[in-house]
Structure to design on (1130 residues):
C-alpha cells in the first residue's frame, strides 16, 4: 500500500510537488499522468527515499520512506525509463548479481524461472544485455523486483520507447503482478498505455493532483480531453 | 575564428587554465631571471676578490722591491708563483636568454679558478651547492613550461572543439550550414593558436625589454620564437587530427592525454634509459688514473727524463736559457712538471669528450621520434645552457690552463725574474 | 562488497580492448622493469671494475712515504643500490666519485646528467615512472566515469533500491580499481625480487608496496568520489586530471624551488671562502713556519722531556699532519654539518607539501625506500668522509709512529702496509634506522587515506544518487 499525505518538495524556488496526497491500495495499479516537470519523477524519488519531502509524509506499507529507507527499499521494486543494466553481463548474470547484493542466494534454476515469469524467453537468458531490446531489459528489471518479492512497484515512464507489442507485454505482466497482490505506481505521459494498464489514474499538474478517475469509467478519448483541458487551464 | 571567443569567454575552466598557464610562464621566466642575476652577481663577487688579490700581490711586489719585506716562502718573483698568484678565473657568463631556459645550467659550474695544475674535471667545477632532490625533480623554467605544459593547456582548450557537438548530437546541424568540418575545426583552432602565440610573445617580450637585449640576443630570441611557433603548430596539427576523427569530448581528451604521455614522458624516458644502458655513467677512470697513477709515475721520473720529455713536447724550450745549461735544474723541472701532466689530461679529456659525443649522437639519432627533447636541446642551445655550451666552456678553461703553463715554462726556463710590470703583463694576458 | 568487486572485474575482463591494452601494458611493464635491472647491473658491474682497478693500484703501490700516499689518495665510488633500477631518485644528477685524500674534503663528481645532452625531464623510463605517472593515469581513466555512467543509466538508483549503500558502491568500485593498480604493482615488485636477495631489499620492497598501495587507493577513491558527485564525465575527468597535473607536475617543482628559497644554501664561493678562512686559523701541515705548529712542537717536546724533534721517538711531521687533519675535520663538520642541516630542513619542508599533495609523499617515500633519495646520498657522503678520516689517520699514524724520524721524508712503507689499509666498503643504511626521516610522508599519506575514506563515508547519499 502506498500513502502520500500532503507532501511538498521544492527545488530552489520551484515547487515540484505541492501538497500532494494519494492513496494506492494493495493490488491496485495507479497511473500518474502529467506533462514533463509535473512532479511525477519527484514523487517516485520521494517514495524511493532519495528525496525527503519538506512537509507531509510518504509511506509504503505504513513505513515512512524518508526515515526508514532501509526498510522500504526491501519491499520496493523500481523500473526506470531506460532499464540499463550491466551490458557486459547476461540477463541471468544481471539477475544473479542483483539478488546477491540484495542478500539473497538464489539458485540458477530459480533465477531462470523468475526470468521466465517476467516474460523473458529462455533462449535470451544467457545473452549479454547489450544485445537486448528495451522491452527485454525491462523484463529483466521486473525480474529483479520479482526476485526480491517486492510488494510495491514504482515505474517511471516504463513504456517510453517501447514498440506496441512490448508495451502490451508490459501491461499484461504488470496486471499479472498486481493480481498477485502487489501495488504498482506507474508514472507516464502515455494516455493510451496508462488507460490500458492502470486501475486508477491521477492527473498531475505543477505538483498538484488535479483529477483522479477510475479507468473502467472513462475511455481513452475522454481521458485525453480531460487531460488537455487541465493542461490548458 | 573570432566567434570562438564567445565559446572561450563562457568557459571559466578554460579561462582559469589560461590564467594559470600565464602565471606559470612568468614564474618560469622569473626563475631563469633569478638564476641569471645570481650567476652575474657571483661572477662579479669573484671579480672583486680577484681584483683585491691582485692589488695585494702588487703591494707585495712593491714591498719586495723597496726591501721592506723578505721574499715569501712562495716567491712571487719566480714565474711559477707569479703566475699562480695572478688569481686567474675562467667564467661562463650567462646568456641573457638563460631567462627562458635554465637547461643544464644547474648541473655544471660556471666559474673556475685556474692554475697550471687545473683540469677541466676538477672538483671546483662542480655545480652550485643545491638540494639534489630539487635538482632531480627539476626546476620550473620557461623551457619546461612551454614544452611540457603547453600541450596540456592545449588539451584543456581544444578537447571539446567538435567534441561537444558530437556529445550533444548536433554536429550535423552545424555541418548543414554550408561549412566543411575541416575548415570549421581549423578556424576554431586558429583562434587558440593566435591567442597562445600572442600570450607567449607578450610574456617573453616583457623579459626581453627588462634585460635590454642587444641585437645579437634579439636575433637569438627570434630563433627561439620561431621554434615556439613550429612546436605549437606541431601540437595543434596532432590535436586537429584527433578532433577531426574524434568521437566526442571524452574520446578526444583521452587520446590527447595519451599522445602527451607518449611524447613527453614515454619516448624521452625510453631514450634516456636506452642511452644509459648503451653508455653507462662514466666513472672517469682514465681521468682518475692520470690524476693519480700516471701523475705518480711522472713524479717518480728523474729530472733528466723529465727534461727530455718537456723539450720534446714543448719545442720552444729548446732555445731557452735553461736548455743551454749543462746541468738540469731540479727546481726548474719541478715547476714544469705540470705541463706534462696537463698533456696527459688533455688526451684523457679528448677521450672523455669523444665518449660523451657518442652518447649525444645516440640521443640525437632519435630526434625524429623525440621532438620534445629535440626542441628542449635546441632552446637550451639558444640559451647557452646545453651540454655543448658547457663543453665550449671546458675548452675555454683548458686554453687558460695552457696559457698559464706556457707562461711558466717560457719564463722559468729563461730564468726570468718577475717584477710588478711583468706581473701586470701576466694578468693582462690571462684576462 | 565482494560482489561489487567481482562485477567490476567482470566488466574489465569482458572488455576486449581493455584486455588487449593490458596485455600490451603488462609486457611493457615487464620489459621496463627488466631494463631497469639491466641498467642497474651494468652500472654496478662498471663500478666494481673501476673500484677493483683503483684498489689494485693501491695494493701494488711502489714504496712510498705515508704522507705521499695520503696525497695519492683513494676514491669512493657511489654504489648503485639494488633498488636503483626501481627508482633512480637523485642518482642521475649527483656525482658518482669522490677523491679521498689528505688535507681536503673533495666533492662528489661526474654525474650522469653532466655527461650528455639533457633528455627526459621526468627521468628514465624506469618502474618508478610507470608506477608514479602511468598507472595512476590508468586508475583515473578507470574511475572517473564509473559512477556517472551508472547514474546516467539508472543502474545506480536500482543498486541502491536493491539494498546497496552509495558509499558501499564507491568503496567497492574503488577497491576494484585499486586491486588493478595493486596487480601491476605486485608484478613489478615480483620481477624486482628476482634480482635481489638481501633481506634489507625485501624490507624496502614491502615498504614500497605499502606506500604505492596507499597512493593508489587515494587516487582510486578520489576518482570514484568525483565520479559520484559530478553529473557528467567531462567535468569529472577534467577535475581529476587537473588534480593529477597539479600534484604530479606543478607542486613538486614549485614547492622544490620554494623550499630552497625559504632555507637557502650558501653559494659555493661563499662556502669555500668561509671554510678556507677558518681553516687558515689551524695548523698548516705543510708550512714549517706556522706558529701553531711551534706550539704543538713545544707540547710534544715537554711531553717526552726532550730538547729537539730529532730526539723524539716518533716522527713529529706525522703528528702535525694529523693535527692539521683533525682541525680540518672540525671545520668540515661545522660547515658541511650546517649545509646538511639546511638540506634536512628543506627536506622536511618539502615533505610537508604532502598535506596538499600525496604524490610528493609517495615520491619521497619511493626514493627513500629505494635508497636513492637525498638522505641516502648524504649517508653515502658521510660514510665516504668517515672512511677518508680513517684512511688518512692510518697513514699519518704510520708516518708518526711507524719508525721514522722527524724530517725523514724519504722513509717509505711498502705495498704490504698499503694492503693492510682497509678497503672502502659502503653498505646502504638500513631502512628502519632511517625511517624517522620519512615519518612526515607516511603521516601525510595516512591522513589522505583517512580523508578519502571520510569523503566517501560521509557522501550525501540522496543528493548524489539522482
Amino acid at each position: 500500500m502506498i500513502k502520500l499525505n500532503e507532501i511538498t518538495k521544492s527545488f530552489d524556488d520551484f515547487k515540484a510537488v505541492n501538497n500532494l496526497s494519494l492513496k494506492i491500495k494493495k493490488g491496485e495499479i495507479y497511473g500518474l499522468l502529467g506533462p514533463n516537470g509535473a512532479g511525477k519523477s519527484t514523487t517516485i524519488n520521494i517514495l524511493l527515499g532519495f528525496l525527503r519531502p519538506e512537509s507531509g509524509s510518504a509511506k509504503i506499507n505504513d513505513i515512512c520512506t524518508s526515515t526508514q529507507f532501509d526498510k522500504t527499499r526491501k519491499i520496493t521494486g523500481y523500473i526506470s525509463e531506460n532499464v540499463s543494466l550491466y551490458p557486459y553481463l547476461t540477463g541471468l548474470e544481471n539477475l544473479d548479481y542483483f539478488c546477491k547484493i540484495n542478500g539473497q542466494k538464489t539458485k540458477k534454476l530459480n533465477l531462470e524461472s523468475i526470468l521466465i515469469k517476467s516474460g523473458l524467453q529462455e533462449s535470451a537468458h544467457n545473452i549479454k544485455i547489450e544485445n537486448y531490446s528495451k522491452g527485454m531489459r525491462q523484463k529483466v528489471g521486473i525480474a529483479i523486483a520479482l526476485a526480491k518479492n517486492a510488494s510495491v512497484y514504482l515505474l517511471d515512464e516504463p513504456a517510453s520507447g517501447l514498440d506496441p507489442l512490448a508495451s502490451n507485454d508490459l501491461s499484461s505482466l504488470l496486471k499479472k503482478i498486481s493480481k498477485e497482490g502487489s501495488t504498482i505506481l506507474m508514472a507516464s505521459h502515455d494516455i493510451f498505455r496508462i488507460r490500458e494498464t492502470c486501475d486508477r489514474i491521477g492527473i498531475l499538474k505543477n505538483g498538484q493532483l488535479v483529477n483522479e478517475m477510475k479507468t473502467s469509467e472513462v475511455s481513452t478519448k475522454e481521458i485525453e480531453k480531460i487531460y488537455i483541458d487541465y493542461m490548458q487551464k | 575564428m573570432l566567434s570562438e571567443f564567445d565559446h572561450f569567454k563562457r568557459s571559466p575552466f578554460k579561462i582559469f587554465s589560461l590564467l594559470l598557464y600565464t602565471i606559470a610562464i612568468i614564474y618560469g621566466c622569473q626563475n631563469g631571471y633569478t638564476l641569471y642575476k645570481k650567476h652575474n652577481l657571483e661572477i662579479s663577487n669573484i671579480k672583486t676578490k680577484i681584483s683585491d688579490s691582485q692589488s695585494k700581490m702588487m703591494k707585495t711586489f712593491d714591498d719586495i722591491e723597496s726591501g721592506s719585506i723578505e721574499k715569501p716562502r712562495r716567491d712571487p718573483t719566480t714565474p711559477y708563483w707569479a703566475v699562480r698568484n695572478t688569481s686567474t678565473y675562467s667564467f661562463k657568463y650567462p646568456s641573457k636568454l638563460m631567462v627562458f631556459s635554465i637547461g643544464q645550467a644547474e648541473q655544471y659550474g660556471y666559474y673556475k679558478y685556474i692554475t697550471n695544475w687545473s683540469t677541466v674535471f676538477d672538483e671546483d667545477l662542480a655545480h652550485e651547492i643545491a638540494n639534489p632532490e630539487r635538482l632531480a625533480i627539476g626546476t620550473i623554467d620557461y623551457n619546461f613550461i612551454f614544452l611540457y605544459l603547453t600541450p596540456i593547456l592545449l588539451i584543456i582548450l581544444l578537447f571539446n572543439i567538435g567534441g561537444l557537438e558530437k556529445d550533444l548530437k548536433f554536429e550535423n546541424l552545424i555541418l548543414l550550414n554550408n561549412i566543411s568540418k575541416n575548415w570549421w575545426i581549423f578556424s576554431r583552432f586558429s583562434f587558440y593558436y593566435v591567442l597562445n602565440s600572442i600570450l607567449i610573445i607578450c610574456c617573453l617580450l616583457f623579459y626581453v625589454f627588462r634585460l635590454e637585449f642587444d641585437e645579437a640576443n634579439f636575433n637569438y630570441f627570434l630563433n627561439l620564437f620561431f621554434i615556439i611557433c613550429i612546436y605549437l603548430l606541431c601540437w595543434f596539427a596532432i590535436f586537429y587530427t584527433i578532433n577531426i576523427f574524434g568521437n566526442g569530448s571524452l574520446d578526444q581528451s583521452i587520446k590527447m592525454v595519451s599522445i602527451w604521455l607518449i611524447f613527453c614522458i614515454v619516448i624521452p624516458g625510453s631514450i634516456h634509459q636506452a642511452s644509459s644502458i648503451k653508455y653507462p655513467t662514466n666513472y672517469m677512470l682514465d681521468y682518475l688514473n692520470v690524476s693519480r697513477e700516471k701523475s705518480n709515475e711522472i713524479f717518480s721520473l728523474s729530472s733528466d727524463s723529465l727534461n727530455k720529455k718537456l723539450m720534446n713536447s714543448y719545442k720552444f724550450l729548446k732555445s731557452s736559457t735553461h736548455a743551454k745549461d749543462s746541468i738540469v735544474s731540479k727546481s726548474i723541472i719541478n715547476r714544469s712538471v705540470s705541463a706534462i701532466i696537463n698533456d696527459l689530461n688533455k688526451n684523457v679529456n679528448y677521450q672523455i669528450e669523444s665518449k660523451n659525443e657518442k652518447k649525444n649522437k645516440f640521443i640525437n639519432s632519435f630526434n625524429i621520434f623525440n621532438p620534445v627533447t629535440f626542441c628542449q636541446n635546441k632552446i637550451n642551445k639558444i640559451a647557452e645552457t646545453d651540454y655543448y655550451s658547457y663543453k665550449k666552456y671546458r675548452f675555454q678553461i683548458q686554453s687558460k690552463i695552457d696559457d698559464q703553463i706556457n707562461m711558466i715554462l717560457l719564463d722559468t726556463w729563461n730564468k726570468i725574474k718577475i717584477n710588478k710590470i711583468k706581473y701586470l703583463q701576466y694578468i693582462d694576458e690571462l684576462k | 562488497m565482494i560482489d561489487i568487486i567481482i562485477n567490476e572485474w567482470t566488466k574489465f575482463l569482458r572488455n576486449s580492448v581493455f584486455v588487449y591494452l593490458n596485455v600490451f601494458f603488462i609486457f611493457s611493464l615487464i620489459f621496463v622493469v627488466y631494463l631497469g635491472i639491466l641498467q642497474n647491473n651494468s652500472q654496478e658491474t662498471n663500478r666494481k671494475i673501476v673500484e677493483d682497478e683503483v684498489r689494485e693500484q693501491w695494493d701494488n703501490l711502489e714504496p712510498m712515504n705515508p704522507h705521499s700516499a695520503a696525497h695519492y689518495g683513494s676514491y669512493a665510488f657511489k654504489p648503485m643500490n639494488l633498488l636503483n633500477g626501481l627508482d633512480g631518485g637523485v642518482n642521475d644528477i649527483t656525482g658518482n666519485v669522490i677523491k679521498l685524500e689528505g688535507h681536503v674534503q673533495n666533492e662528489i663528481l661526474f654525474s650522469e646528467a653532466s655527461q650528455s645532452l639533457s633528455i627526459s625531464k621526468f627521468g628514465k623510463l624506469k618502474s618508478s615512472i610507470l608506477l608514479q605517472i602511468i598507472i595512476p593515469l590508468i586508475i583515473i581513466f578507470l574511475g572517473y566515469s564509473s559512477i556517472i555512467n551508472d547514474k546516467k543509466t539508472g543502474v545506480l538508483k536500482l543498486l541502491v533500491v536493491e539494498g546497496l549503500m552509495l558509499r558501499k558502491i564507491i568503496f567497492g568500485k574503488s577497491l576494484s580499481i585499486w586491486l588493478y593498480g595493486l596487480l601491476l604493482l605486485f608484478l613489478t615488485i615480483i620481477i624486482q625480487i628476482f634480482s635481489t636477495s638481501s633481506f634489507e631489499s625485501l624490507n624496502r620492497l614491502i615498504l614500497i608496496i605499502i606506500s604505492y598501495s596507499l597512493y593508489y587507493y587515494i587516487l582510486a577513491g578520489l576518482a570514484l568520489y568525483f565520479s559520484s558527485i559530478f553529473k557528467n564525465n567531462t567535468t569529472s575527468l577534467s577535475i581529476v586530471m587537473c588534480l593529477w597535473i597539479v600534484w604530479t607536475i606543478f607542486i613538486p617543482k614549485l614547492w622544490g624551488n620554494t623550499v630552497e628559497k625559504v632555507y637557502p644554501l650558501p653559494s659555493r664561493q661563499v662556502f669555500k671562502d668561509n671554510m678556507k678562512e677558518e681553516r687558515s686559523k689551524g695548523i698548516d701541515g705543510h708550512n714549517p713556519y706556522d706558529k701553531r705548529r711551534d706550539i704543538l712542537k713545544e707540547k710534544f717536546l715537554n711531553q717526552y722531556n726532550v730538547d729537539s724533534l730529532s730526539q723524539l721517538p716518533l716522527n713529529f711531521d706525522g703528528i702535525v699532519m694529523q693535527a692539521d687533519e683533525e682541525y680540518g675535520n672540525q671545520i668540515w663538520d661545522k660547515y658541511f654539518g650546517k649545509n646538511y642541516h639546511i638540506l634536512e630542513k628543506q627536506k622536511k619542508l618539502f615533505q610537508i607539501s604532502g598535506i596538499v599533495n600525496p604524490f610528493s609523499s609517495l615520491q619521497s617515500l619511493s626514493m627513500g625506500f629505494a635508497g636513492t633519495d637525498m638522505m641516502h646520498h648524504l649517508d653515502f657522503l658521510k660514510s665516504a668522509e668517515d672512511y677518508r678520516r680513517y684512511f688518512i689517520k692510518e697513514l699519518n699514524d704510520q708516518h708518526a709512529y711507524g719508525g721514522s724520524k722527524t724530517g725523514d721524508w724519504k722513509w717509505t712503507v711498502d705495498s704490504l702496509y698499503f694492503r693492510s689499509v682497509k678497503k672502502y666498503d659502503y653498505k646502504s643504511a638500513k631502512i628502519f634506522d632511517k625511517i624517522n626521516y620519512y615519518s612526515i610522508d607516511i603521516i601525510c599519506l595516512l591522513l589522505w587515506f583517512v580523508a578519502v575514506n571520510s569523503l566517501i563515508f560521509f557522501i550525501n547519499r540522496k543528493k548524489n544518487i539522482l
User: Anything to note?
Assistant: The mean pLDDT of chain B is 90. The longest helix of chain B spans residues 12-66. The CA atoms of residues 336 and 409 of chain B lie 6 Å apart. The first strand of chain B starts at residue 88 and ends at 91.
